[in-house]
Design a protein that fits this description.
This protein is mainly alpha-helical. Helices cover 60% and strands 6% of the residues. It has two domains: 13-76, Winged helix-like DNA-binding domain superfamily/Winged helix DNA-binding domain (Arc Repressor Mutant, subunit A), CATH 1.10.10.10; 85-133. The radius of gyration is 17 Å and the shape is globular.
Amino acid sequence: MLFRLNYKAGKAVYLQLVDQVKAAAASGSVQSGEPLPGIRPLAEELRVNRNTVAKAYAELEAQGIIETIAGKGCFVRENHSPYKKEVRRRLVAGTIDDAVVQAHHLQIEKVDFLRLAEERFDAFQDRRTRAERA
């Protein structure tokens, strides 16, 4: 798995790692049971503190995305969310709220915003379908 960090993004590095692992798991580019890189080697590769990677892995485990097996490492879990449907909806709603505010500031009309959201959703589903076939 290849990680790309943007230090100018205004988003904490550990949250960038969390988002990238979640996206990879959701898209199927990493399969359940697949190991994640070890904390120390990944920290060295990304040139970040080990605690940053450990914090990202702890957050992913708390969200039910990965599981840690003592002495073996961290692995992607089955795609069974531990959250109830309403909690999952609230989590997504927060992200959508941020996108709506951004669209407002960029003067993007509602129709264009909804069309873009649909296009992005469809593109994601296409990538996932291709990854599942591979």
